[in-house]
Amino acid sequence: MLKKIIAIIAMTIILSSLFTTMGDKAEAAYYHTKAISVAKANLGVPYRWGGLTPNGFDCSGLVKYSYGKAGKVLPRTAADMYYKQGYRVSSLQTGDLMFFAPNKASRPTHVAIYIGGGKMIQAASSKGVSIAYTSNSYWKPRYIGAKRF
Prior knowledge:
Shape: globular
CATH superfamily: endopeptidase domain like (from Nostoc punctiforme)
Radius of gyration: 19 Å
CATH topology: endopeptidase fold (from Nostoc punctiforme)
CATH class: Alpha Beta
Oligomer: single chain
Distance between the termini: 43 Å
């Protein structure tokens, strides 16, 4: 009888951790999908240094705003997002944050949201909120890594 009780407790613990992990993944997928939807709804909004609203965004302002509308609080700057949020990933998934710097040794100065299909959505000083290919000749050599949360 004691062995059955121990087996039931062990199974309960295993199933509980499995469902918690599945719930965490579903929650993350929601944040990513919602944030991308918010960012896409702002396509064409002009770039504004320090901008945090649909009146004008800078890169980290767009990311912070989009994820904020999805219920996820992020730091204000690209560097703080890079150093203080999430975990590094080597293979991109939809919703990952992509970081860029003037050179590989610099702190990140730009952040974008990976939207899949080799594309990212960003607030770029030249185009405002726009979609670009990750293989773009300007951005690709400045890419320093991605984070997921």
